[in-house]
Each structure stands twice: as C-alpha cells, then as structure tokens.
Amino acid sequence: MKEFHWFVSHGMGWKCGATLQEAMEGAFCTSYFGDMKSWLRTIHREGTGAGIPAFACRVLAPMDADYDIDYFVPVGVDRDECQNLLVTYVTQKHVTWIADPHDRIRQLERELADKKTYLSERYGASA
C-alpha cells in the first residue's frame, strides 16, 4: 500500500498527522486553543452554524513529501477521501467533529446531474 498521511486545515492554519485524529488534534488543540474555543462558542451562541469548518484529506505521499498548499488545500500531490468537517467541541487535548451535511447534498446533486446527462446522451431527450 502506498504511503500516506492526513492533512487538516481551517481558517487559522493547517496540520498533518499519521491519522485523521492526530491531524485534527494538531490543527485544533494548539497554542491558540483559546481562540478556537472562543470562535466555537460564538458560532454556537449566535446560531450561525454547527461548528468550525475544516477541510480534511488523505495525502497519498509520505509525511515529509514536498508539495504546496494553496487556499488551505494540498496541491501538486495526489489526495483522496477529501471531506468538509464541522468541529463541534474542542479542548486542549480533545476535538470532536461531524461530517458537513452539505457535503452529502452536493454529492447527491452531482450524481443526479451525471444521471441526467447520461440519459440525455443515451436517449436524446431532456430528462
């Protein structure tokens, strides 16, 4: 199996880890943990969201691989299992998160569009 590591980013930075849990803890349980906790408290109090948005993916390269990061996403390297997450709770040692429910909606919309295109090409009618 090809060597890989996890990459996690959010509005204040990014971290890598051998596991998703390790990368999430590195990105959120940091020296600016107080800022994270305050940010999360504000989101919950104001009702502006379920948590702090984060991006995570598996980078298909060793941890010490050389690649660029552009707009908080690794570029110039293969990646998979990309997902948007919402961090719902953070302490100095632990972080919890959920999958962003909008990811599933976007995935279903893409699948539906692909099926409509297929039907249109196959049968020559708009689906």
Q: How many distinct helices? A: 3
Taking all residues together, what is the mean pLDDT?
Answer: 87
Measured between the Cα atoms of the first and last residue, the distance is 42 Å
Provide the β-strand percentage band.
25-35%
Low-pLDDT stretches are none
Structural class: alpha+beta
Number of domains: 1
Tell me how many strands there are. Answer: 7
Which series of helices and strands comes N to C?
Answer: EEHHEEEEEH
What radius of gyration results from the CA coordinates? 18 Å
Give helix % range: 25-40%
What kind of assembly state do the chains in view correspond to?
A: single chain
* Overall morphology: flat
Strand order of the largest sheet: 2-1-3-6-7
Mind summarizing the main beta sheet?
5 strands, antiparallel
Give an account of the 3D structure:
This protein has 127 residues and is an alpha+beta fold. It has one domain. It has three helices and seven strands, in the order ββααβββββα. It has helices at 20-28, 33-46, 101-123, and strands spanning 5-10, 13-17, 52-59, 68-70, 73-75, 79-90, 95-99. The strands form two sheets. The chain has a five-stranded antiparallel beta sheet with strand order 2-1-3-6-7. Strands 4-5 form a two-stranded antiparallel sheet. The protein is flat.
Layout of strands and helices, then pairs:
Layout: E1 5-10, E2 13-17, H1 20-28, H2 33-46, E3 52-59, E4 68-70, E5 73-75, E6 79-90, E7 95-99, H3 101-123
Antiparallel strand pairs: 1-2, 1-3, 3-6, 4-5, 6-7
